[in-house]
Amino acid sequence: MGHCHNIGMHIEVPQDGKKIVLVGNPNTGKSVFFNYLTGMYVDVSNYPGTTLEISHGRVGNDVIVDTPGVYGISSFNDEERVARDIILAADIVINVVNAVQLERDLFLTQQVIDTGVPVIVALNMIDEAERQGVEINVDLLSELLGVPVIPTVAIKKKGLDQVKNSINKARPGRMDPELKEKLNTMLNRVGSQGEALLILEGDPAVSERHGLEPENLREEIYKRRRERVNSTVRQVVKETNNGNNFADTLGRLMIRPATGIPILILALYVMYKVIGVFVAGTIVGITEETIMQGIYEPAVKDFVGKFIPEESVMGSILIGEFGLLTMPFTYSLGLLLPLVVGFYFFLSLFEDSGYLPRIATLVDRVLSGIGLNGRAIIPLILGFGCVTMATIVTRLLGSERERRIAIFLLGLTIPCSAQLGVILGLLAPLGWQYVLLYVITVSSVFVVVGAIMHSTLSGKSTDLLIDIPPLRLPRLDNVVKKTAVKSYRFISEAFPLFALGALIISTFQVTGILRILQNLLAPLTVGWLNLPAEASTAFIMGIVRRDFGAAGLAELPMGAAETVVALITITLFVPCIASIMVLFKERSISEAFMMWGGSWIIAFLVGGTAAHLLKVFDTASGAVQAAAAITAAAAVILVFSRVTARNKLKKSSAAVAND
Amino acid sequence: MTLDTVKRGQSCRIVSIPDNGVRAQAIRFGISEGEIVVCDEVIPAGPIVLRKRRQQIALGRKLAASIIVE
Q: Residue A22's closest CA among A78, A70, A76?
């Protein structure tokens, strides 16, 4: 077959079978179509060179392939590259279009039509459009596009069988005659209309495959396509009212700071109540203590113990305190899985309802001060669930620079849910003055380190540019499914890392390195942080599991000042071994070492400063004064870093002016 | 003038978007050079929210400052 060379992923298609590809913008209900068409026989495979997973399933002799939701196909990000390659290799495209957002969605439709592939359009959420007063002339739309258009309400299963039965009616659509002419010349050289189109649109990857220089016509083609789409929309859409309803008003209130911030706080509070109290307490109590530690671990220890004594070297590596067969299982399945599910549930809820882009817009201003844009709120929220998970999720950020900042801040300042529980337990009895000191210190580190990285790192962070979809009530089954898929992917990616971490730690334990490290750290804990020598054990245990470290502190005889210093240090101190593994996986070795070393230095520097401040103000009200001193110091550093950054900018623009 | 100086409720015509990638992405969202858009929301010192018919997009303040409108 002629198009085999351009697919990055090999999907078996029977001889007389067709490759039917589902294409659509994000959140158009594409997945409902995929599930309906494929039933239960679905394969998920990783798309080579990306972190994206592509689902495909068989229907008779044909294969249905899903693609990531995109607004267009080109090389702007991984999603687009993958969608582009799958579409270029398609025999038929089913394009799912959101009837409410026709103007946006039809751009992709027209682009797909321009590739010359046979297309059928599913005009989805037609009921929603009607409710909002959008009337669409389906026959005229079909005539203008030149392909069959079928109105559907996917979540109510309306029109799905009609789409299924009409797949063979898909046909190449109508396109701009002028574009067609341009394409013909290129078509003679590359042999495929789709690839010819992408070369004309200046796609570097497709051009390279043909050994051609990318053309420079994207601007012109995009503009003409936009005009064509706008004119189509003008002809087929009749708006009967402005759709100014409750959802619109609420959507507005979510973006405006005066109302948006209280709404966000409320949402986070509900999330805390559900995850922090119910999941972390009740559910984890059952999964970790009752099931994993109560049933699973004794059973494994008992079974393995029959062949290998637990006290032997092999025994402690397999079933010891950090044994390969015990700790990673209990940790990832008993403790993390329920928390990860909880966090992904809320994230999917926010995403499907359209709240997430509104949060991103609301917080963009704050995050831009540390070189991130509003979208970075997603990994930052997830970090409170599990830093390992959040580090993986930073892949959605727009540039390497942003990933670098976000990953370091996550590892340094965000306490994961496992640790947060123990920290809150130790901190709360000390009184609000110490809680204040803790919160102010850790958040000052977050802001100061972020701002310094932003002003010193080279390169440019990407700006916020996102689509804000209308608010809608999320579908529970969709949310549950998304949660399940994401949680499963995370656990399957993270589990090997936890296992490797356990192996390293138990090797350290067996060989005595763990003890040596604890002894090495002791002088620093005693002399600089003014803590008991045993606190160093807790710090080292914090590398094994962050909550182990914090829990280890609970057993030490410490006053309020010592406790808060120890908690600040352990929060900032290196993240757990699994996060360290992810850090090394996601970043270069030298960068990972720098981040790792950096968190040691910052943890002890800040912890020590707090310890010395508390020595001066050694009362509860002293803690407030210490907090004030830290705030002042942070403000000074911030102003200073901003001034240096501005000077640097002036210098570089002066240099440009001089050129 | 630039997009970051537009006030809530005001409509304006996009004159130029300097960044290539942003320009292409904006065309896909239906907001291209020459289009008339309504400013739906201005977050103080933060993003600008634009609307064209039912399409709403949010742009970071710095990005908005680089876009020329009239």
A: A70
